[in-house]
Amino acid sequence: MVATSAGLSVLTCAPAKAEELVIWMRTNQPAEDKALKAIIAEFEAANRGHTVKIETRSVDEHKSALRIAATSKAGPDAYYMWAGPGLGGEYVKAGLSAPLDDYYKKYGWKDRLRPLADAYTDLYPPGKHGVPYQLNGEALYYNKALFKKAGIETPPTTYVELIAAADKLKAAGIPAITFGGSVNWHVMRLMDALVETRCGAATHDALKAMTAKWSDTPCATEAFTELRKWTANYFLKPFMSFDQPASRGLFLTDRAAMMYEGDWLVGQLRSAKKDVNNYGVFPFPTGTNRLYGFGVNFYVNPYSTKKDLMAKFLDVFISDKSQQENLGAFGPMGVNKNVVHKDPDSLDSAWIDIFGKYTATFINGDQGFPLDVTTEYWRVINSVASDTMEPAGAAAALQQFIDKRAK
After folding, report:
1. Which residues pair with 56 in a beta bridge?
2. Which secondary-structure segment (H or E) carries 368?
3. CB neighbours of residue 290 within 10 Å
4. pLDDT, position 271
5. What's the mean pLDDT when you consider all of the chain?
6. CATH class of 2-136+294-361
7. Which of 170, 202, 295, 378 is deepest in the core (most CB within 10 A)?
8. Rounded to the nearest 5°, which phi and psi values hold at 367?
């Protein structure tokens, strides 16, 4: 007998029928691969004869394969997907996700999960969909030396203070922030934060849910106007000519004072042999007390005949033991609230404080909108950012597309 992560006991003798679980994922980072292999080995040791196979593809190929699976009622036993209404929700609505309420009750998963992670399983009522794989926050990293050079003593805590800091950096000849404009989603992060700042949480959610009209909501135009202010005055240029990795490289070589990036940047700083103590991080000061970020879930295919076995694997994945032993492999925080961070450095400590402070999030636009609206949102943002569309007409342009698709 072997004790599983949920405290149950299972026989280690070979099962009557050995089964292989197949999970589809996007291409993993080396640390993820190592952690997944360890977790799979633990599961296979406790369920002798059963195996787990991970199949990886590029992000776009992964999405395409899942869309085909949704129409063919085939595909893997479970799959990795970002948890927002516009990404994970696409496959839930297409019928490619099994509600997992019974398994949540059986294994007591909710009691282990961080509230912010668990919230991403409740986006598609009435059932719970997905088991959290990863929880990420996005915030403003800053170069302490460049802030000091510009006379900025403490990180901004309000949007007014953030603009004042950006003005000080500009006066000192330092670009305030770097973005990679050649990828649609990078500048979108700033736009999302500006909508949250200008419109507030409830109106922002209504705009992303398309229950409020962008053209009839003045704060939406205010947000586009603020975007133009940032691109005109504070961006490291020419931002439209390089992508996000190039933008990150410019931040790491002290070319700009800030970067709007996820918690995963901490690991990238270490990989680049940078002293993390030279950097700080603070949430974008929207004033709504919601953290910008997103979740990633494992979703279970309703057409799988091995859902019970998959639930056993997912139970091992989010167990205290697996999450503690592989802390950092699936994001700095992990999805299990019982893990203990040992000897955190300054940036790790900052993120622990950030995640401890917030009880609600707002998600990336490309996870909130349907795919076609996301593409138009990007087009409008890029047009405003590149000075080919005036901010005053941006909200109306986006709403025109939304109205047309509804007919």
Report:
1. 25
2. helix 365-368
3. 19
4. 83
5. 93
6. alpha beta
7. 295
8. -100, -10
Strand runs labelled E in 243-374: 258-262, 279-282, 291-300, 361-362
Compute the CA torsion angle 222, 226, 227, 229 (nearest 10 deg).
140
Contact status, residue 267 vs residue 104, Cβ threshold 8 Å: no
- As separate numbers, helices (DSSP H) first and strands (DSSP E) second, the chain gives 17, 10
Q: What tokens were used for 336?
A: 């299990």
Amino acid of residue 173:
G
Unique residue bearing structure tokens 């007591």: 108
My answer on whether omega of the bond before 126 falls inside 30° of 0, hence cis, is yes
Q: Residue 30: its pLDDT value, please?
A: 85
CATH code 3.40.190.10 for 138-292+369-406? yes
d(CA 343, CA 322): 19
Beta bridge partners of 82: 296
Residue ranges of the chain that CATH labels 3.40.190.10: 2-136+294-361, 138-292+369-406
Q: How far apart are CA 356 and CA 291, in angstroms?
A: 11
Q: What is the pLDDT of residues 92-129, one digit of tens each?
A: 999 999 999 999 999 999 999 998 999 999 988 899 99
User: Rounded to the nearest 5°, which phi and psi values hold at 23?
Assistant: -120, 130
The closest of 227, 223, 255 to 242, measured between CA atoms, is 255
**Sequence-ordered list of residues with C-beta below 8 angstroms from that of 105, at least 6 positions apart, any chain:** none
Cα distance between residue 24 and residue 79, in whole Å = 5
pLDDT band at 316 (very low <50, low <70, confident <90, very high): very high
Q: Which helix (H) or strand (E) holds 393?
A: helix 391-406
pLDDT, mean of residues 147-173: 98
- Both tokens of 134, joined, read 């990863």
- Parallel, antiparallel or unpaired: strands 131-143 and 291-300: antiparallel
- What is this structure's pTM? 0.85
Whole-number Å distance between alpha carbons of 70 and 392 = 40
Q: Are strands 51-57 and 131-143 parallel, antiparallel or unpaired?
A: unpaired
Which residues make Cβ contacts (< 8 Å) with residue 148, sequence separation at least 6? none
Q: Rounded to 10 degrees, what is the CA torsion of 118, 123, 125, 128?
A: -30
Distance (Å, whole) CA 354 – CA 348:
10
Q: What's the DSSP call for residue 11?
A: -
Strand partners, 78: 23, 300
